[in-house]
Design brief:
This protein is α/β, with parallel strands linked by helices. Helices cover 34% and strands 17% of the residues. The chain is built from twelve helices and 15 strands. An eight-stranded parallel sheet has the order 2-3-4-5-6-7-8-9. A three-stranded antiparallel sheet has the order 1-10-15.
Length: 351
């Protein structure tokens, strides 16, 4: 049986939700990843230091069997965010970055930034504090085609921000386009991007051809095959600017399979099997460790993990559903067989 042992990976973009949903999904992330950068788009959003630390404690309380797992927190930028909050965030070891959601761009983004050109003071402060900026990179104008929103955001907002604030570390999260890849590759030092397993493996035909498949619907939306190929080439290139961020985003079944369904793919239980599938498809398994375990830690200036994770080429069937409070949660690839599985690490390993 083929096996691949790598340094235990980190997930640099995940949604763990809260309350009963948190208890249902957090163990899946903690089982495979040593650390996870947790997104702040709760309702209400995580905008204050106390919000972030209280949320972090709730995550830890939901994971009594995963003492080595480290949740790392983010703050949700709003039009009311103050410089004082940023100073406090930069000084706290458990708060790693701030997240920019353009208002209306995705799930629970209604409290996001309405005028991106109006936050220069905040960005200047973050640059001085060396506090990274995480970006959901899409414009929200209804006049812009949904498949073009990432490229337009880069041209209109992100590229100018990177030039105005050359010392600001920026992560363009869940890149979906050739334009996003080109921006990261050509930008100055301190610019990086995360890539999800679903955007590496699937294009918009998987979501739309032959019928609408709501569990493939995410934002930014799946793009054409030539974009997917560009993402896969970047992920497997060994370029340290690109690293793992699952953007695993759970939603109850009835909110996905609805007339106006929620955006998000739940991949946490089998994310590493999906990444291994993607890397193997271009004979690049030898570069999976850098992408999954090294590049992100290096970007955030954290020590690399010391424990390991072993993947085995042992087929697994993805469950049809998982419990999700009073509802159920349908994972991406529900009912399908994946070629790779995870061999659980001994419980006494250090992260």
């Amino acid at each position: 049986m083929k096996t691949l042992t790598i340094t235990r990976p980190d997930d640099w973009h995940v949604h763990l939700r809260d309350d009963g949903a948190l208890a249902a999904v957090a163990p899946h992330t903690a089982r495979h990843f040593a650390r996870a950068l947790v997104m702040p788009n709760l309702r209400p959003p995580v905008t204050r230091i106390s919000d972030a630390l209280d949320y972090r404690q709730r995550i830890l309380d939901a994971l009594p069997d995963s003492p080595q797992f480290q949740p790392l927190m983010t703050l949700y930028l709003t039009d009311a965010t103050t410089k004082e909050t940023l100073v406090e965030a930069a000084a706290h070891p458990d708060i790693l970055a701030c997240k920019l959601y353009p208002a209306g761009a995705t799930t629970h983004s209604d409290a996001g930034i309405r005028d991106i050109r109006g936050i220069n003071t905040l960005l200047e402060t973050m640059e001085k504090l060396d506090l990274p900026l995480l970006v959901h990179g899409e414009v929200t104008s209804t006049e812009v085609d949904i498949f073009d929103r990432e490229a337009r955001f880069i041209d209109e907002f992100l590229a100018p921000i990177s030039l105005r604030f050359p010392g600001l570390r920026i992560v363009l999260e869940h890149i979906t386009t050739r334009e996003g890849i080109a921006f990261v590759q050509s930008a100055h030092d301190g610019i990086a991007g995360t890539l999800t397993p679903h955007h590496l493996l699937y294009n918009r035909n998987h979501m739309l051809a032959g019928g609408i498949r709501p569990h493939y619907y995410c934002l930014p939306i799946l793009k054409r095959e030539d974009h997917r190929q560009a993402l896969l080439a970047a992920a497997t290139s060994g370029n340290p600017r690109f690293f793992l961020g699952t953007d695993s985003a759970p939603h109850a079944r009835h909110t996905k399979e609805a007339a106006c369904g929620c955006a998000g793919c739940f991949t946490a239980p089998h994310a590493m099997a999906l990444y291994a599938t993607a890397f193997e498809s271009v004979n690049a398994l030898d570069r999976l460790e850098g992408f999954a375990s090294h590049h992100g830690a290096d970007f955030y200036r954290l020590p690399r993990n010391t424990a390991s994770l072993t993947l085995t080429q042992n087929p697994q069937t993805v469950p049809d559903a998982y419990p999700y409070g009073a509802d159920s949660l349908i994972p991406l690839n529900a009912g399908e067989t994946l070629a790779w599985s995870i061999m659980d690490a001994p419980p006494d390993q250090d992260a």
